[in-house]
Design goal:
There is one protein chain. The chain has twelve helices and nine strands. The structure holds 2-acetamido-2-deoxy-1-O-phosphono-alpha-D-glucopyranose and magnesium ion.
């Protein structure tokens, strides 16, 4: 145990008035941006028996999230709304400090605490029931928030899914090439530039007003769904930092590029990287089962392409982070951002070949659930 970190977590717990003595902590490594810990406290369960109660304690990455208090305002309102709409469901509940804030900011580190939900998560699964259940959870998330005033939400990361802007940033940083790193990634850069217009389809349509803004999650990796450890049914959607106004295709595309890839999103060996159409189908089934009735024609028409768009967009982000010195994404090994970029590029190439199939799967599911 890192004693300094343990002390910090205890201090945070104190500010949020978490009851009982602090006992232990465990880091949760799934996220690429924030630092997440399960903090365990011992409490008397009322009968004199000791019981361990856990909390989820997070240090928000303020390099990525420049307006963390605006972000917490979004989360507070969105989680409150969900609790109201679905009182019987497992929900995220954020704790308040003695001053009544949902965060603790000491000028340097930004901390928050929420309930810990005993659960399992999946980075990858061949179990199509799990996939459908995750997809239903993300689809349902959109439907629960269908009546929420989308304009009242803060953009926690402005231009998060502005693919044109992501490209512009990449092009500028590659031209400056301050760290002399572009030489390592020429092929990936060239490919991404060659598909720029197609990759910017959603951004361009949004600009023209052809797609409606909805409350979207914007980080729909399957490991952002918690599952019941026994039944493997989805319990709750987590990681609400990027809940913002967005497009339904952002959520759908990001989910399939992550979950329906044959390999991990940062696989070093990309020979197997590509879209697993069975998994894609299962995801489309689950998602459209919930959302098909409200989607416009344009929304339906963009879902097939959305995985490609999101893979290219993320590839520009990984690549830009590599070129500018690995500051945004947590890197877990040397050249991690290069592997991530290559994998998204390989996936994007494969998805272009399978575009027709993905389109017809989406059409079939829409027809079934509308
Ligand atoms: C980041 O930290 P995590 O894993 O929730 C990123 C997503 C990327 C993802 C790629 C706020 O999400 O946009 O798709 O990594 N989140 C942010 O793994 O940038
Ligand atoms: Mg996230």
């Amino acid at each position: 145990m890192d004693e300094q970190l343990a002390r910090k977590l205890q201090q945070v717990g104190l500010k949020f008035s978490l009851p009982g003595p602090f006992f232990n902590y465990e880091e949760i490594f799934t996220g690429n941006v924030n630092h997440t810990y399960r903090a365990d406290y011992i409490r008397d369960d009322g009968t004199g028996m000791a019981r361990i109660t856990s909390y989820l304690v997070q240090r928000v990455n303020t390099y990525a999230f420049r307006d963390p208090t605006g972000l917490m305002k979004n989360i507070d309102r969105v989680t409150g709304y969900i609790q109201q709409q679905r009182p019987e469901q497992t929900c995220l509940v954020y704790h308040h400090t003695q001053e009544g804030n949902t965060f603790l900011f000491d000028g340097d580190e930004f901390w928050r605490v929420c309930n810990y939900v005993p659960s399992v998560t999946f980075d990858k699964t061949d179990d199509l029931d799990i996939m459908r259940s995750a997809a239903q959870a993300f689809g349902d998330f959109q439907m629960i928030l269908n009546g929420f005033d989308v304009k009242s939400l803060v953009y926690t990361i402005p231009d998060f899914h502005n693919t044109r802007k992501r490209y512009d940033t990449l092009i500028k940083d590659a031209e400056e090439d301050k760290l002399d790193r572009v030489k390592d990634v020429k092929e990936e850069l060239e490919y991404l530039l060659s598909v720029q217009d197609l990759a910017c389809t959603l951004t361009d349509m949004e600009k023209k007003g052809e797609l409606p803004l909805r409350v979207t999650h914007n980080d729909t990796k399957i490991n952002n769904v918690l599952f019941d450890p026994i039944t493997h049914k989805a319990l709750v959607v987590i990681d609400l930092d990027t809940v913002m106004p967005g497009l339904v295709a952002h959520d759908f595309g990001d989910a399939v590029r992550f979950a329906a890839n044959f390999t991990e999103e940062d696989a070093e060996d990309t020979s197997r990287t590509g879209m697993d159409l069975n998994v894609f189908w299962a995801f489309a089934e689950g998602f459209l089962n919930k959302t098909a009735p409200v989607l416009t024609q344009n929304e339906q028409d963009t879902l097939g392409l959305s995985g490609f768009v999101l893979a290219c967009e993320l590839a520009t982000r990984f690549l830009d982070d590599y070129i500018t010195g690995d500051k945004y994404f947590k890197v877990k090994k040397p050249n991690h951002n290069i592997y991530r970029t290559r994998c998204q590029v390989a996936l994007a190439k494969d998805m272009l070949k399978k575009l027709g199939a993905m389109d017809s799967i989406v059409r079939g599911c829409v027809k079934k659930y509308r």
